[in-house]
Amino acid sequence: MLGRVRRSTAIRTVAGVVLAAGIAAPLVRRRLKLRPPVVTATASLAPFALCVLTPRSPRRDVGVCLLQMWAYLATYQMPNDDPEALERRVKVAYPVKADRAIGLGTTPTLRLQRALTRPGSFHTYEKVLVWSHWLWFLFPHGTVAYLLLRRPEHFARGAAQVYATFDLGLVGYWAVPTAPPWYAARQGLMDDGRTPELRRMMVEYGEHFWRSGWAPLYGFLGGNPLAAMPSLHFATSVTAAHVLTDSGAAAAPVAWMYAATLGVALVYLGEHYVIDLVAGLSLAEAVRGGTPRVAPVVHELSRAVQALERRARA
């Protein structure tokens, strides 16, 4: 009996240390000069530690999702810890060439802006497109929250697919950092001698709408401006729409309409190339198609965590 108590105490102690380290690592990475793999690995263990320490409940599910995104955000932002080094690595030309081929000589972003926009003003539909971009921050996580509250039997699978889409997209951001259209325009790679030149309309409208609040808001949400391939805005929205469809949610058609609107917005506003969206769609479909294949591995991992959880409370 005494040995069992000591063992459970040791497991809880280790899990507590892992949880604290996972929360702290992204916060102190610059001060302690922690290497990115150390930060990511440490932060990624925090959700498992929370599962060992606390019994399954909706609160724990929320905590696990928050900790997962904490690890994601740290890994997403770290390439931009050294902006100059990131700019030396970033790929700028290849998506311009790809989208010019798709647009038959002119990128779809420029074609859309030249056909539909008027410099210095904002049509109602352009404001709608900007807001669809801003509201993306709520959509994937709102989908997971909906499953937790209204479709709990679909929560585990749906949340795993949404957050797997986030996490796998990071591979592209680290391996092949790619610039968005607005950055290529600043480098002169969008200049074809015609006017108007490419506008970054989200920033233009953001400065108009939020006024003095725009700079701190964008600074907080920007994170890594050279992470365009694949488009996780589009990928996670498609995954969320799939998840809602699979759960039988009445809002699933609205989710698909939102994903389509967001796709148009990302290209029209100069935030992503069409080729970024193609890669994002491919990622979302790969996650969906690969779920049955990785399910046995996930099941075994879940069993191992549950066994530790039982021992921690024995």
Describe this structure in words.
- By secondary structure, the protein is an all-alpha fold.
- Helix content is 75%, strand content 0%.
- The chain has helices at residues 2-32, 36-53, 58-77, 83-89, 93-102, 108-116, 124-134, 139-150, 155-175, 181-186, 201-210, 214-222, 232-247, 252-268, 274-312.
- Helix 2 (36-53) packs across helix 15 and helix 13 (232-247) crosses helix 15 (274-312).
- The mean pLDDT is 93.
Structural class: mainly alpha
Quaternary assembly: single chain
The averaged pLDDT comes out at 93
Kindly, what is the distance between the CA atoms of the first and last residues, rounded to a whole number of angstroms?
Answer: 10 Å
Q: Which spans have pLDDT < 50 for at least 5 consecutive residues?
A: none
Number of helices: 15
Strand content: under 5%
**Biggest beta sheet summary:** none
Q: Return the string of H and E elements.
A: HHHHHHHHHHHHHHH
What's the shape?
A: globular
Beta-strand segment tally: 0
Helix content: over 70%
Question: TL;DR?
Answer:
The chain is mostly helical and 314 residues long.
Record keyword descriptors for this entry.
314 residues; mainly alpha; 15 helices; 75% helix; globular
Secondary structure layout plus pairing:
Elements: H1 2-32, H2 36-53, H3 58-77, H4 83-89, H5 93-102, H6 108-116, H7 124-134, H8 139-150, H9 155-175, H10 181-186, H11 201-210, H12 214-222, H13 232-247, H14 252-268, H15 274-312
